[in-house]
Description:
Layout: E1 3-8, H1 12-27, E2 31-32, E3 41-46, H2 51-66, E4 70-75, H3 77-80, E5 91-93, H4 101-110, E6 114-116, E7 139-143, E8 145-146, H5 157-161, E9 165-166, H6 169-181, E10 186-190, H7 205-213, E11 220-223, H8 228-231, H9 235-242, E12 250-252, H10 260-266, H11 272-285, E13 290-297, H12 304-317, E14 321-326, H13 343-366, E15 372-380, E16 386-390, E17 395-398, E18 406-414, E19 419-423
Parallel strand pairs: 1-2, 1-3, 3-4, 4-5, 5-6, 7-10, 10-11, 12-13, 13-14, 17-19
Antiparallel strand pairs: 8-9, 15-16, 15-18, 16-17, 18-19
Amino acid sequence: MVKVYIENYGCARNKADGEMMAALLYLAGHELVDTPEEAEIVVVNSCAVKDPTERKISRRIKELLDSGKKVIVTGCLPHVNPDVIDERVSAVLGVKSIDRITQAVEYALRGEKLISVPDWRKRNLDKLDLPRLSPRGVHFIVPIAEGCLNACTYCATRLARGVLKSYAPEKVIEWVKWAIRQGYKEIWLSAEDTGCYGFDIGTNLAKLLDEITAIEGEFRIRVGMMNPNHVIKFLDELIDAYKDEKIYKFLHLPVQSGDNEILRRMGRTYTVEEFEEIVKAFRREFPDLNLHTDIIVGFPGETEEAFQRSIELIKRIKPDKVNVSRYSPRPGTIAAKWKQLPGWLVKERSRIMHRIRLQISYDINKRYIGRKLKVLIHGEGKKGNIDAVTMNYKHIILPQGEKGKFAEVKVKGATSTYLLGEIVN
């Protein structure tokens, strides 16, 4: 038996992978500890979506090794840029090899090295067949697919996760039912792109949502990011599914640019007009829709006019939140070979977009002041007090509340990132 700590980076999908590895290690008799200081072996479950994230993880691996820990690296980084992984690590596992984590630990204890980073075409791992060891909390992540159907010119994640592999609806349903039996109140449906779920197995996300909402119990579903080019294919059906009260009225729909030529260069197979069509259709049915979108600034070829179109789109659509990313070239991608914009210009555009999106978010959140809303209480927040979410997944900070309970609150204040309120029932 050995003490192991798993350090997760990146998306909810990656966190679920970490919980699967934790279960396999636990069943093999190893002890999962709460801090890296307690551990003999640290598993760094990495992310490689952005260059700054990659540099941070590379430094962290070196830091752990220098402190005397044995380190196993898993996740997307081994696929995207293995050259930045310190050669002293004990094992390197790709995203399709997480089921070999116990073997990696055994190798590490013997002083041997295991490298298993297969191409996604060569290893067909169904992760819903793996066990899970999840912390006792309010929400539970259910992966519904891995990989995607897009070919974005800037994205390295698809090099790791591969082409879409949707998990069978019956397996997804069984995990949701299990989570509800365990007392979880919030189900996160996670994938690289939930919008294309089922396209490879003759179904779609709307049908899956209908099956999940038919499950008995008081719980809520948070649907992960979905790309516009897929959503528009079954838009009416998806909106009908969203009408169920068990689904948070939350939509993460990345647009990435407000300029159609930049979208074409990005390999995003939709137009700004199609993105707006989806948003308008959702808002017609759900006036309180909590819309999140993503914008990449400084993409190769982004002129001042193209950037201004992105600003105009954000001002026109007024999303509740905009995730602003500075473009950074990723290894193995087409866009990395193109002429890059100056770093100072990319930073300046990022600052401009951030100021706009914060003002829009604040203006939206102020309109909630005085309203009474139903919330699900998550528990103690990062900065004290109690964190809860509304039924359109806006975070609201409360002075008190019981974790895992639904409650009615009155909104007393607002910031650009969260609401302030108190329980009234």
